[in-house]
Amino acid sequence: MSFPITTAVDYVEDVSPGSGALAPRAWYASSDADSLSLNGSWRFRLSPTADAQDDSFAAEGYDAGDWAEVTVPGHWVLQGHGSPIYTNHLYPFPVDPPRVPTENPTGDHLRVFDLPEDWPALSEGGTVLRFDGVESCARVWLNGTEIGEFKGSRLPHEFAVGPLLKTSGNVLAVRVHQWSAGSYLEDQDQWWLPGIFRDVTLLHRPAGSAGDFFVHASYDHRTGEGTLRVDSEVEGRVIVPALDIDVATGEPATARVEPWTAETPRLYDGELVTAGERVPLRVGFRTVVLEDGLIKVNGRPVLFKGVNRHEWHPEKGRSLDLETMREDVLLMKRHNINAVRTSHYPPHPAFLDLCDEYGLWVIDECDLETHGFVEQDWRDNPVDDDRWTPALLDRAARMVERDKNHPSVVIWSLGNEAGTGRGLTAMAEWIHGRDASRLVHYEGDINCRDTDVYSRMYASHEEVERIGRDLDGGTHRRRELPFILCEYGHAMGNGPGGIADYQRLFEAHERLQGGFIWEWIDHGVKDERYGYAYGGDFGEELHDGNFVCDGLLFPDRQPSPGLVEFAKVVEPVAITGDGADGTVRVTNKQDFADLSALAFEWALQADGETVESGSLPVPALAAGESAEVKLPHPAHGVPGGAETRWTVRAVLAGDTAWAPRGHVVAWGQVLLAERSLPSVAATRGPEAGDGVITLGPGVFDARTGALKTIGGVSVEGLRLDVWRATTDNDDGASWQTDVRHAEVWRKLGLHRMRHRLDAVETGENALTVRTRVAPAAWEVGLATVYRWTSDGDRLRLTVSVTPEGDWTVPLPRLGVRFGLAEADRVTWFGGGPGEAYPDTRAAAMVGRWESTVDALQTPYVRPQENGARADVRWARLGGLRIEGDPEFYLTARRWTTEQLDAARHRTDLTPGDTVWVNLDHGQHGIGSQSCGPGPLPQYFLNAAPAEFSFVFSASD
């Protein structure tokens, strides 16, 4: 005999989107109608299961005095109640849709509030209670009366509550469940963070107040006219003073306008006026079409230079305030980003207001991902199960209706990594029917049956080029559509590499309309144990480690080298030349704006130092135009004997909303005269002493030939080094079938190389040390010869490396490593100011730079190889001056490579007394194999005969 289970929480596992909520409508930040924020401190009780507590807490007069308190908006697991969970795509519970575990953390929230004294009389109009975001399922009561329940975590839900309100002592009770049927639709690559994490607001709705409305603002690029029509659920008038528009809702009005684009985000202030409410409007006129196989805005193709943006704050999770959102937008604009994909859910609506204001193209993505079903070959996938279709359509409608009045939104996205199925087709059909003014995107629709854009993620350079050349095949419909990389350049740890190579393809083939770097910010959780925590740091039984830290920003919103590199790669002005004819070629790479907002500056530099500078007249080139611009004649001529180059910068000519006057938008360098390579005449020979050999300023161990000092500066352990602390991109992703270099490097033993001394030879003018560097267990090795010569003041080291055996893998690095007892300040002439590697060096400007050793480190959340400065001609540190022949990569750090390799968090690294210096002839490329292709072949550091030299001397 069996007994029925209580039905009190059946709604948790119901596939429907909920009950009691009002129909979705357009969002706006404010109006002249009253509103009351219910954000702040709420009483909170956490239970281990959905049915552990009855509903009595929702009743008026309930005593919650012994409950804890949490901040709303917020996540209770980030406020000391439970722990966050990180998975990339695996569901952290058994997959049995729509069922969820009995262990279902449930947070009861209570807020008692009074209405303000000036709140309208309760008999006047109505009142709506709005939740902008709750994860993952909520049931709501007001003053003891249940008003509804809902799912759809990153979507708004409103409830009519007017008849239930009192002037004082209102009790709002919300029960939030971590797991629900909706969780199966929200398997995005991010932390699972339950709670009321967006705003809760009480909205007065006066009689005759605005309902839903749709702002249609198109632009005709042939006539320069914009047409405005506002369809409104409630009749009223539309007023735009700057355009002398005053028309009834539903009626079109045409005027000459300045169009809205991401480059020129012109907004016209207006109002929707109904009998009971005045709603501010910000109208941007623009037209989006699919034409000639291209995405066109206002008649022109656009090139997306975009990022994927999850919402993240290291202490507040997905609860972002307006200033944090603004900081994101300003950082994007200042780093030449022009587009954002709201991965993988609609953002806080205020973020889209900022995109309208400052100018960003937006792909607005629905709150939908069912990626975990891939583990069972997509069996029982909700998007192909008709029972779930109403929930899918509800999510699509809540996104579109909320965000439809934003000019920045040019494409709707059905969601991410949800397989294929009838439910997605239904969503696409509904969106196309509701809003024909935008395109529809979904990467999983490989044949583009339901979508308007061919989209892929992490396609290789080779495949992207084939697509650009229309050689990719596919259905006839797909071949006629534009292509974007909705995700590429996986920015996990050091990297991404190869984005400049992608950009060259985008610019070479019209069909390729750009892409979106994955992703904007590392999702590190601030943690006193580790600095920033990632998957597994909270004891999760299933997790995906630091795969959640894959952004262009560190968790504290400091730009990573990857963001600086991306800004250079996608800069809107190209400045090129060969220096021979005294001109530079300036190309406006924007899609719409001319160059009138920019000023140009030149500097003439000798050995990295500016000797002359000035302004450079450049015409206000239209988008796509180029001009040859004559450089000035230096007043004092070109310095003789020095490496000289022009550096030309494009800067903002005046203050803008997103950056001040003088902000550097783009730059280029043109070489005039190459450097003279260092030369050391071998005029001094080695001299034997008491257990040592002296050669010029160098002192060596007589038995081993090991360098001990240079000019009195102690040098420890100088020898060949081929190992680097593997990067996330070296490690690659476990599911990838191609070669993951860190794996083969470790198998071969490149992290534990043995150094065999074969000979120490003293000649008339040289000290030669012969060695073999090889891993245990294998026959391959590197025959390495160190040849030292001196002119008395300087010491030259020439390293010759000859591979022995069958080397089938590239090397991580090739150079020498040594330790210095004291080193703090570092000065160098070469690429800077930040780190650079073979396929991440576009942003390395050649100049003279200075830093501390500590500031040379890049603070990746998971420690790994970092901090190399490229193309270094010479460097000074620790009492030494080091010149390279040829140029070299420089790194210096207060821990060994082995210690760096073993560290899992920043706090694992403890500075030592020795500064370890690497002078590298070569580094292997970075790539983006943490979730994409590895380095291109031209960036491989293949094992091959090599010779390189360094000249050491005591510095002043």
What does this structure look like?
By secondary structure, the protein is mainly β. It is globular. Residues 1-7 have low confidence and may be disordered.
For the structure shown, list the relevant keywords.
956 residues, 16-stranded antiparallel beta sheet
Q: What's the helix count?
A: 11
Name the poorly predicted regions: 1-7
Helix proportion range: 10-25%
Number of strands: 58
Q: Strand pairing plus helix content: what structural class?
A: mainly beta
What is the C-alpha radius of gyration, as a whole number of Å? 32 Å
Question: Strand content of the residues, in percent?
Answer: 35-45%
Mean pLDDT: 97
User: What's the quaternary structure here?
Assistant: single chain
Q: Sheet bearing the most strands, described?
A: 16 strands, antiparallel
